[in-house]
Design a protein that fits this description.
The complex is a heterodimer of chains A (about 260) and B (about 550). With about 260 residues, chain A is an alpha+beta fold. Helix content of chain A is about 35%, strand content about 25%. Chain A has 4 helices and 11 strands; from the N terminus they run αβααββββββββββα. A 5-stranded mixed sheet of chain A has the order 4-3-2-6-9. A 5-stranded mixed sheet of chain A has the order 5-11-10-7-8, covered by helices on one side. In chain A, a hairpin with a 4-residue loop joins strand 7 and strand 8. Classes of the chains: A alpha+beta (about 260), B mainly alpha (about 550). Strand 1 of chain A pairs parallel with strand 3 of chain B, so a sheet runs across the interface.
Chain lengths: ~260, ~550
């Protein structure tokens, strides 16, 4: 198990379509996406077919009606479609973004930095230690600048891979050290920028165990295309043993 | 007509603007081909240039976007075509301020040269994309090209703002003040309505862009901190001095950036309406509604900028508000599209078709515009939904969307305008056979290039990726698709050689044009400038005894009867 997490993983995206969904809200999102794509493909085809067919059966005289009422009828048919698209989409957006995470949601901090993702787990005290940019030094094993004077940080675990238990909601706390990055986990249907100076939150529930790529979706400099990491969704038992191992390793380290 | 430099003649300036755009589009296309080739063969050295580094790819993206959006899609349809025909279309002799028009052209040329100079400074052109999000664009240490290259970018866009402003003031003053007696609002050709609304948009939004650029310049050189937050750590150095907000730049930039795409596409909508009327030999049904909807699209365009920022850290309630305003644009856009479709396929008020629409090259390109406007426009309501955008944002789906609805619809309308107004520029017609060949190869190439990008985007491929395989993922399933896109892009670019040949050959050897060769009704085609008060609408065609007759605006209605 731990070997799988340490090995560099390369996940192939083998479809010309949405990658397999591994999250709870992704089911509704995929359904919404499918219906939207069908609706616009039909409209696009209809417009082209209308144009071409009308050209082919040339010229017919004495169409009785002037075109305007027909146009208004079509518009009247299309407007409810737009309203439907707008309302259903807001429903899903509200469910995932207006409402905060449940109180039991697991906290993980995601920090973007040119050109690397860091994931910080708060440890047994469930609180993140203070970080200071002036203390950040990746070479000494403190890339985020954890302040050793803050006891809450003494059990924080910093990882370069994101490991999450299946079936438990996670609340990601998004930060950036330097420039704007974009946290994008296609398999979790999650995207939110990490903005320096802001702490943003996004929450979701991974459901299907497996590995998923984590990408950067906001151009952030020359290494943008290789700013990637791996999300492993594992069973709760595997997750607990992984986190316990990381916490043990953390407590054996000298204090930063 | 002799092409003289330092002229203030509106038509010659119009030609100069179009030549500027033509040179720019050639450069911008070459940059995009390098990008396409690099994406599918990232480790193959290119002839002359050698191996492209990741930062070179991003510099190409930035310069491609900046060149195409500002110097092609803003200049050609707006000030280029307006300089060419606007004064005649409203019965004026020249623009309201001819010298301002010339000044605006020379400033635009200076802006272009300053921008291109960014390729030749140490560390090259900026890599932060045409949107230049800080802190990447604010801190020279954040990446190669963010030093001198970024300064040149800022200087160029600052100059461009000035040029656009002067042009917009000029167009606005011309439309408001120079119309001939009798040229009432409902007798304006639809192109004039489009230029009216884009000029107002230009005045409002380029002012904001200029302000944003001054603030960013100040952050870079004057020690301010509008966009850089406290404690910002770049390359091991703390650069954040005050407590600025990168989101402020996003708001300022997109307040400009969204109306900007309407500035690019509204003139094409006006031109397509005119061409459909001209070549379908009919009126514009619901002229007042069509004009009102153009205005509505422009005004709604001012309140939708947040849809570029759904996942940027903006309040999610604001996301909903911007989603609803964005969806609202679908309504006037649908009215326009249905108006065009009914113009093209449904009979005129008389209930009779004459010979039906004709399909010379300008009409074909106007139909191409319609095809891309529909196909690219329809993905708009998808991206306007924050829930779906939270997956699609910054993927190739977005690249496909704006290349269809802005780049291709815009370019096809520019082609339509050039083929249509070529006789006014040179006294000759462009070659029809080559024109039709150019159209069919272009529409096949453009659909083949940009439609498959939707699929790469659905698969999750982000923008600005110089290669498809990274440390954690390999987009192996989309490699074939990406190779197909690159081939189609090369095909599309090659087809443009036919156009170049046609332009330069026809300018000297083309068939001399009769006066009013398209049997148009609008005033730019009037054979003599000596006509009096206007008392006709812009598109008066009618059928009498099964024969098509048309009434140009320069013919007096009272004299006929």
């Amino acid at each position: 198990m731990s070997a799988m997490l340490l090995e560099p993983v390369c996940i192939a995206q083998s479809h010309l379509w949405l990658p397999p969904n591994g999250s709870l809200h992704g089911i509704a999102l995929d359904r919404l996406m499918r219906w939207n794509l069908i609706a616009i493909c039909v409209c696009c085809l209809a417009a082209h077919v209308w144009l071409i067919v009308a050209k082919l059966r040339r010229p017919r005289s004495n169409h009785a009606a002037y075109s305007t009422p027909f146009r208004w009828a079509l518009l009247a048919a299309l407007c409810p479609m737009y309203v439907w698209l707008a309302v259903t989409a807001q429903h899903l957006w509200a469910a995932s973004r207006y409402a905060g995470p449940s109180l039991e949601a697991m906290q993980v901090e995601v920090v973007g930095e040119q050109f690397q993702w860091y994931f910080r787990y708060p440890g047994s005290d469930a609180a993140f230690g203070v970080t200071r940019p002036a203390l950040a030094n990746a070479a000494t094993g403190n890339p985020l600048g954890l302040d050793a004077r803050d006891p809450r940080g003494s059990d924080d675990v910093v990882s370069s891979a994101l490991v999450l238990p299946a079936g438990r909601e996670v609340d990601l706390r998004l930060r950036s050290v330097d420039v704007i990055h974009g946290l994008f986990i296609p398999g979790m249907r999650v995207k939110e920028n990490t903005v320096p100076g802001l702490v943003l939150h996004v929450h979701f529930t991974p459901t299907t165990p497996g590995t998923y790529p984590i990408l950067c979706s906001q151009v952030c400099g020359l290494g943008h295309a290789r700013m990637q990491a791996v999300l492993s969704v594992v069973s709760p038992a595997e997750f607990d043993s992984w986190l316990a191992a990381r916490e043990r390793a953390r407590s054996e380290q000298p204090a930063q | 007509m002799k092409l003289r430099l330092f002229t203030t003649h509106h038509r010659i300036l119009g030609i100069l603007y179009l030549l500027l755009s033509l040179a720019t589009v050639a450069i911008g296309t070459l940059l995009s081909l390098l990008m396409r080739i690099h994406r599918v063969w990232p480790d193959t050295p290119l002839p002359i240039i050698g191996l492209l580094k990741p930062e070179d790819y991003l510099a190409l993206v930035t310069m491609h976007g900046t060149l195409m959006i500002f110097f092609v899609l803003t200049i050609a349809p707006q000030v280029g075509f307006a300089s060419l025909v606007l004064p005649e279309q409203i019965g004026a002799r020249n623009m309201a301020f001819p010298r301002l028009n010339a000044a605006s052209f020379w400033i635009a040329l200076a802006a272009l040269l300053v921008l291109l100079a960014a390729f030749f400074v140490p560390k090259g052109a900026p890599i932060s994309g045409w949107t230049s999000y800080p802190p990447l664009s604010a801190i020279p240490a954040a990446g190669p090209g963010e030093g001198a290259g970024m300064d040149l970018w800022l200087a160029s866009i600052g100059l461009f703002c000035l040029s656009s402003w002067l042009a917009a003031v000029n167009i606005l003053a011309t439309i408001l003040g120079e119309r001939r007696a009798g040229m009432t609002w409902t007798r304006l050709p639809m192109t004039v309505w489009a230029w009216l609304i884009t000029s107002i948009l230009t005045l409002l939004v380029f002012a904001v862009l200029l302000a944003a650029i001054v603030l960013l310049f100040s952050d870079r050189h004057l020690g301010s901190s509008f966009f850089v937050p406290a404690g910002d750590l770049i390359n091991g150095t703390i650069v954040g001095r005050g407590d600025g907000s990168p989101l402020l730049w996003l708001h300022l930039f997109w307040f400009f950036g969204h109306p900007e795409v309407y500035i690019a596409v509204l003139p094409g909508m006006g031109l397509a309406t005119s061409l459909f009327a001209n070549f379908a030999r009919r009126d514009v049904p619901g002229y007042r509604i069509m004009a009102t909807m153009l205005v509505a699209i422009g005004l709604l365009g001012l309140v939708v900028w947040g849809h570029h920022m759904f996942v940027s850290g903006m309040n999610p309630y604001a996301g909903t508000a911007f989603a609803l305003t964005t969806m609202a644009i679908a309504v006037p856009s649908t009215v326009e599209v249905l108006g065009w479709l009914s113009m093209l396929t449904l009979p005129t008020p008389g209930g009779l078709w004459s010979s039906g629409p004709r399909f010379p090259t300008p009409m074909l390109f106007a139909l191409g515009f319609l095809s891309f406007f529909v196909a690219g426009g329809l993905t708009g309501p998808i991206l306007a939904q924050p829930a779906l955008d939270s997956y699609l944002h910054n993927t190739f789906f977005v690249v496909a969307h704006f290349h269809m609805v802005m780049a291709m619809a815009g370019t096809f309308s520019i082609f339509a305008g050039i083929y249509y107004w070529f006789p006014l520029m040179t006294g000759r017609l462009m070659n029809e056979t080559l024109g039709k060949l150019h159209f069919w190869l272009s529409i096949i190439g453009a659909w083949g290039t940009f439609f498959p990008m939707h699929l790469s985007g659905l698969a999750g491929e982000p923008r600005h990726y110089e290669r498809l395989t990274g440390p954690a993922t390999s987009f192996s399933g989309i490699v074939a698709n990406e190779r197909g896109i690159t081939s189609a892009a090369l095909f599309l670019a090659a087809a443009q050689l036919i156009f170049l040949w046609n332009v330069f050959w026809s300018a000297r050897r083309g068939r001399p044009a009769q006066p009013n060769p398209w049997q148009a009704t609008t005033l730019e085609w009037a054979p003599v400038a000596a006509f009096g008060r206007i008392d006709r609408g812009p598109y008066e065609y009618e059928i009498a005894l099964n024969e098509m007759i048309f009434h140009p605006q320069w013919e007096s209605a009272s004299k006929q009867e």
